[in-house]
Amino acid sequence: MDDKVTFDELIELYTLEKNLRSSSNKLFISIVSRFSITIDAVYPDDVDRQAVLLWRKDFLKKIKPATINSYIAYLNSFYKFGIKNNYLKSKFSPFEGLSVKAPISNDRRLSDKKINRIFKFIDDNDVLFNRDPSWFWKTVVMVFYHTGMRVSQLIGLNNQDVDLVDGWIRLRAEHSKNYLEYKVPISDDLNRVLVDYISKRKRIANQFFNIHENRLKFDPKRKDYMNSDDVFYAFGLLSKSVGFRVTSHMFRHTLASDIIKSSGNVVYAQRLLGHLSVQTTTRYIHLDTEDLKETLNDCRK
C-alpha cells in the first residue's frame, strides 16, 4: 500500500490546522487543486523543482508576475507545512525562492483627475448599470475613498458596525486579511453621505451594504446577501463607463499616498489601512514626479 499523502489529503490537513478565513480557504484550495491538475500529479512528493520551473514558465505567458507570485506563496506555504509536519518525504519546498520580479508601477494610485471623473459620472446619472440607484454606489465609492477598507471588510459590515454619533466604522477581525479588528474614523464628508444613504436605503437584513435590497428593477438572480463578486462586477462596469480601469483596491493605494503627501506620517497610513507593520504600508505609497518636485522645491528654497 502506498503511504504517500495525496494533494487532496494534504489540502484537508492544511486547511484544518490553519483555520483560514472562508475566502482565503477557497482561494487556497483552488490554487493548489489547479496546480495539481495542471501538472497531472496526485502526490506532492512526485513534484520536483524542474516540474515547477516548467509550470512557472508556462504560466508567465498567461498571467502577470504579481499573480504568479501569489500562487507561488500559497504553494510554498503548502509544501513547507507538509515538510514541517513530516507528511512529505521531501526535505525542501520546490517553490522556495521562485518568485519573479514584478514591475513596480504607479497605476494603482488614482489621480485627482480620475477621481473627479468617477464622481462626475456617478453624479450625472440617477441610475447606474440600468438597474442600480447611483446613490448606492456613490456611497460605496466614498467609503473606499475615505477609509481605504478592503472589499471583504465592506461587505462584512453590519448595521451596528457603523457609528455616526461617535464617528467610526468598526472593521471586524474575521473580515480583515491579518485578523486585526480596528476602527477607522468617519470624515465629515463621508458622514454626510452615510446619513443620506441610511435615509434612502431599504433595510431588510443586517448587512449595511446590500445592493440586492435596493435594485430599481426586478432581479431574477436576486440574493439575500451582497458578496465581493457584486462589487467586482460593478467596478468592472464603472471602468467601462469612465474609460479607465478602476478597482476598489486602488482607493486603498490612493488613500495611503494622499496621507503621506498631506502629513508625511506613514504611521497614520498604517493605522488607517490596518497594517501590522510600516513596511507593508510603504508598498501602498505611490508618489509621482510632481509630488517629488514639490517636495524638492520646498527643501531647496
Give a concise summary.
With 301 residues, this protein is mainly α. Helix content is 53%, strand content 5%. The chain has two domains: 7-85; 112-291, hpI Integrase, Chain A (Orthogonal Bundle).
Describe the structure in your own words.
There is one protein chain. The chain has 301 residues and is mainly alpha-helical. The chain has 2 domains: 79 residues; 180 residues, Orthogonal Bundle (hpI Integrase, Chain A). It is 53% helix and 5% strand. The chain is built from 13 helices and 5 strands. The chain has a 3-stranded antiparallel sheet with strand order 3-4-5, with no helix packed on it. The protein has a two-stranded antiparallel ribbon with strand order 1-2. Strand 3 and strand 4 form a beta hairpin. This is Site-specific integrase. Keywords: DNA integration, DNA recombination, DNA-binding.
Characteristics of this structure?
301 residues; mainly alpha; hpI Integrase, Chain A; 2 domains; 3-stranded antiparallel β-sheet; two-stranded antiparallel ribbon; 13 helices; 5 strands; 53% helix; 5% strand
First and last CA, distance? 78 Å
What's the CATH H-level superfamily name of the largest domain? Intergrase catalytic core
By secondary-structure content and strand pairing, the structural class works out as: mainly alpha
Secondary-structure element pattern, one letter each? HHHHHEEHHEEEHHHHHH
Order of the strands making up the biggest sheet: 3-4-5
Protein name: Site-specific integrase
GO molecular function, one term: DNA binding
Organism: Nitrincola iocasae
Domain Core-binding (CB): 5-83
